[in-house]
Amino acid sequence: MSTNSLHDYTDIKSRMNTRQLSDDEEFTTPPKLSNFGSALLSHTEKSTRPHALPTHKNDKIENPVFEEMNRSSSRSHPPSSMGNLTSGHTSTSSHSTLFGRYLRNNHQTSMTTMNTNDIEINVGNSLDKSFERIKSLRQNMKEDITSKYAERRSKRFLIGNRTTKLGPAKRASTLTNVFDEGVPNSSNELMMSDPREVIESPLEDSYQTGFKETKKNMNYESIDFGNLNPIQYIKKHNLPTSDLPIISQIYFDKQREENRQAALRKHSSRELLSRNRSSTSFSGTSLLSNKDNSLTCNSSSQPRRKTSTGSFSSKSSIEIRKTLKENIDTNNSGNLNSPIHKIHKEITRNKDSDSEKREVLRNISVNANHVDNILQQENKRLKRSLDDAITNENENIKNQEVFYHRPAPKPPVTKKVAIVEPAKSAFLSSNRNIITVNDSQYEKIELLGRGGSSRVYKVKGSGNKVYALKRVSFDAFDDSSVDGFKGEIELLAKLKDQKRVIQLLDYEMGDGLLYLIMECGDHDLSQILNQRSNMPLDFNFVRFYTKEMLQCIKVVHDAGIVHSDLKPANFVLVKGILKIIDFGIANAVPEHTVNIYRETQIGTPNYMAPEALVVMNYTQTSNNRHEGNKWKVGRPSDMWSCGCIMYQMIYGKPPYGTFQGQNRLLAIMNPDVKIPFPEHTGNNEKIPKSAIELMKSCLYRNPDKRWTVDKVLRSTFLQPFMISGSIMEDLIRNAVRYGSEKPQISHDDLNDVVETVLRKFADYKI
Ligand SMILES: Nc1ncnc2c1ncn2[C@@H]1O[C@H](COP(=O)(O)OP(=O)(O)OP(=O)(O)O)[C@@H](O)[C@H]1O
């Protein structure tokens, strides 16, 4: 053999050695030339087993490469280099035993120790004979390799963690099907008297032919695993490992059944549990002091979560709570920075601050019942956090059971704390749509509207109750803004029991942000007017909403408050009742920051009284120029706004709506610009005189002449009377008689007569 050939051979061999180590799955077919080196090694391993000795000594060499080797070896005579050929390819004698054993048979201890004389004796004498032997060895190796890898695969299948998932590589689907079928729709499906009846061969035939058969004969109920998992069970009862798939199947079937039972039990007791929960005001201390309670709370508070599986999870909950309690009891010995400890600290802090919060909230006269609600919600939220953490822990343990087929080990305290982390992050991740106000969480549903610096969301709070959440951003360093908002909150608190004012339920003011939680309206009046803009004028509609509006304003005025920012968008319908929202902000803000420019962002100051604009002008320019201005913003300003809204309802636009931009402001302030009151609408609909009279009474430029809210409420337009034919008859008769007796009547007498008649009509209440 030439040196080159030998090098090639060495290369091939070393490559094959590498290949054999890295990709053994492919050696299911007889080794080709490229597999020759690995075949040598495989045979070496095989040779440790007694039946693996080569037997085919007389096979002919058919491989052309071997023939080439044969030829080249007979042409050149470097047999001594055969020693070099193998001398370095392995570090242990066992790895060199193919040639080593062959040489050992000739009293050679190993390749590393053989000398050239030995080679000459064994190789030089008859190369043909050697190659025949090699051929027979090759055949042997082929068989051995096939069986060896089949065996390895089986071992992997039995020992590896894919056992119940996949099975041996090429039999996955078969086994999966078998297992799928094994899902106990009815536990009677599986009957086996003795798990050992499983066919013991671990190879595929066992699974394909024996598995289903055996399962049919199982006594499913007879196996009691206790706390053992399938592997432990097999070890304990000295069962063959080939039983593992069957035992595992039974094990998981049993677990599924247990879970089903547990779920049923949970379901049947949920109602009772929820009753217990609702009757017990939750507090962190009670949770910790009563393990049983805490467990039931846990199960009932997670209705939509996956049910925890089997006893491991329940034990785990107890363990965690126990550990938590121990941690807290010992206080210094536990991990004070652990998430569970933090939750407990929060609970404790919450409890400590309860009285403080109550005090603060009472100071602004917010409903005391609501304060309790807020505190209860806060406690519930904390409890939910703890339950989430525990459920997460349970699921982690459950996953370990599934993948490693062993009972979840009782985790050490530190491990539990680490596992709780994902629950916390999940809690945070779900916060994207959640706004927290005073530790109560509100989930955004939709945007209801927006103002210059605010957004109002429809939100869902605890118990799925719907609220309006107003988020106002302001300059945190602008004290006047902060004071203004505080003023508004105070006004809302003052009007908290008024049915015509939107209810403020909670608020929180932070750095540049104010959150107001209010009762939620369905639509605002602006939306309603827009909706009806193309519909025929209906005076009953105008009458109804004007009255509703005035009733809201009356409540505010009776409380000594001027809204000063009335517009259709600031009235909302809450379950059919019109209520004022957002009132008082403009009034609460100091005069020099009256929100006229904020208004322009959303429209124009259509509804602002002349005096309000003049006052604003006064404060924004030189004081001297307008020193003599006597106009003040007061209740009449709100009546002006009310008149403007009514005007819009009837004519489709507010009084100065035909002016654009700055001209509108100027027109409102200019006394020479009169408001038109046509007797017909643009659609030629006749407008009742009483309606025109009422609009005029609200839109006097002089605020002192404007009607008060009470007078407007008594107006003919809003309090119309119907006259029957007989009353009309009586009326005419009396008038004729009166005229015959008194042909001349003074203006005052006429007014008296009118008053008397109207009173009588009112008394009739027709
Ligand atoms: N409690 C509520 N229920 C239903 N909708 C509301 C509620 N509060 C406000 N809205 C809606 O949000 C819109 C804006 O409300 P907001 O109180 O901010 O009015 P704004 O006066 O325009 O704001 P700003 O005073 O900042 O200009 C309202 O027009 C209304 O449609």
TrEMBL record:
<dbReference type="GO" id="GO:0000776">
    <property type="term" value="C:kinetochore"/>
</dbReference>
<dbReference type="GO" id="GO:0005634">
    <property type="term" value="C:nucleus"/>
</dbReference>
<dbReference type="GO" id="GO:0034501">
    <property type="term" value="P:protein localization to kinetochore"/>
</dbReference>
<keyword id="KW-0067">ATP-binding</keyword>
<dbReference type="InterPro" id="IPR000719">
    <property type="entry name" value="Prot_kinase_dom"/>
</dbReference>
<keyword id="KW-0418">Kinase</keyword>
<feature type="compositionally biased region" description="Low complexity">
    <location>
        <begin position="308"/>
        <end position="317"/>
    </location>
</feature>
<dbReference type="Pfam" id="PF00069">
    <property type="entry name" value="Pkinase"/>
</dbReference>
<dbReference type="GO" id="GO:0004674">
    <property type="term" value="F:protein serine/threonine kinase activity"/>
</dbReference>
<keyword id="KW-0808">Transferase</keyword>
<protein>
    <submittedName>
        <fullName>Mps1p</fullName>
    </submittedName>
</protein>
<dbReference type="GO" id="GO:0098813">
    <property type="term" value="P:nuclear chromosome segregation"/>
</dbReference>
<feature type="region of interest" description="Disordered">
    <location>
        <begin position="1"/>
        <end position="96"/>
    </location>
</feature>
<feature type="region of interest" description="Disordered">
    <location>
        <begin position="261"/>
        <end position="318"/>
    </location>
</feature>
<feature type="compositionally biased region" description="Low complexity">
    <location>
        <begin position="275"/>
        <end position="290"/>
    </location>
</feature>
<dbReference type="InterPro" id="IPR027084">
    <property type="entry name" value="Mps1_cat"/>
</dbReference>
<dbReference type="GO" id="GO:0033316">
    <property type="term" value="P:meiotic spindle assembly checkpoint signaling"/>
</dbReference>
<dbReference type="GO" id="GO:0007094">
    <property type="term" value="P:mitotic spindle assembly checkpoint signaling"/>
</dbReference>
<dbReference type="InterPro" id="IPR008271">
    <property type="entry name" value="Ser/Thr_kinase_AS"/>
</dbReference>
<dbReference type="InterPro" id="IPR011009">
    <property type="entry name" value="Kinase-like_dom_sf"/>
</dbReference>
<dbReference type="InterPro" id="IPR017441">
    <property type="entry name" value="Protein_kinase_ATP_BS"/>
</dbReference>
<feature type="binding site">
    <location>
        <position position="470"/>
    </location>
    <ligand>
        <name>ATP</name>
    </ligand>
</feature>
<feature type="domain" description="Protein kinase">
    <location>
        <begin position="442"/>
        <end position="722"/>
    </location>
</feature>
<feature type="compositionally biased region" description="Low complexity">
    <location>
        <begin position="71"/>
        <end position="96"/>
    </location>
</feature>
<dbReference type="GO" id="GO:0004712">
    <property type="term" value="F:protein serine/threonine/tyrosine kinase activity"/>
</dbReference>
<keyword id="KW-0723">Serine/threonine-protein kinase</keyword>
<keyword id="KW-0547">Nucleotide-binding</keyword>
<dbReference type="GO" id="GO:0005524">
    <property type="term" value="F:ATP binding"/>
</dbReference>
<feature type="compositionally biased region" description="Polar residues">
    <location>
        <begin position="291"/>
        <end position="302"/>
    </location>
</feature>
